[in-house]
Design a protein that fits this description.
This protein has 162 residues and is mainly alpha-helical. The longest helix is centred in the middle third of the chain and has 34 residues, at 49-82. It has helices at residues 3-28, 30-40, 49-82, 86-110, 130-147, 150-158. It has six helices and no strands. 76% of the residues lie in helices and 0% in strands. Helix 1 runs antiparallel to helix 3, helix 1 runs antiparallel to helix 5 (130-147) and helix 4 runs antiparallel to helix 5. The chain is elongated and about 65 Å long. The protein has one domain. The chain crosses the membrane at residues 7-30, 60-79, 91-110, 130-148. Keywords: Membrane, Transmembrane, Transmembrane helix.
């Protein structure tokens, strides 16, 4: 396996691990999220402690599910890249394009802020900040570029077909 593919696979696995580590930050900040929501909704007589707790719980569970799926996808793609699956390289490039489109849309529509009425995870979860998303985008760009270098091309051409 050429060094470019080895590096791309390593970066994919690093991203998967860092995403999982980022979820733990959300758990560590759960009390802070709860306090912030209680302060924001203190004037609203229709929002009680149970509603605030439910919002925090939803945020954490949503983060766990989304991060689990994304980490599994990165890991699976790393395995398929390593084995030289041509479709994996194409799929990875398409997913990068989709990520780029969604990120630009998020920046344009919400100006990098969470949608109205949602909990701002950026202050509590490192990987939900625009800077973390930018770093993830750069790593994904490096992976895509490495995947289409001549040594990587030979790796994907030599591998057996699915």
């Amino acid at each position: 396996m050429p060094g470019t593919v080895r590096l791309a696979v390593s970066l994919m696995l690093i991203i998967a691990v860092v995403q999982i580590a980022g979820v733990s930050l959300g758990f560590m900040a759960a009390d802070e999220m709860r306090a912030e929501l209680e302060a924001a909704y203190s004037a609203d007589e229709y929002v009680g402690a149970d509603d605030v707790n439910a919002k925090v719980r939803e945020s954490l569970i949503g983060g766990i599910v989304l991060t689990g799926l994304l980490s599994a996808l990165w890991s699976w793609m790393a395995v398929k890249y390593r084995s030289g699956r041509r479709w994996a390289r194409i799929t990875g490039t398409i997913l990068f394009g989709l990520f780029t489109f969604l990120w630009v849309l998020w920046l344009g529509v919400f100006n990098g802020e969470p949608p109205p009425g949602s909990l701002d995870p950026g202050e509590h979860m490192l990987l939900a900040t625009p800077a973390a998303n930018a770093a993830m985008w750069v790593l994904a760009l490096v992976i895509v570029v490495l995947s289409w270098t001549p040594p990587a091309d030979r790796h994907f051409r030599r591998a057996r077909r699915p």
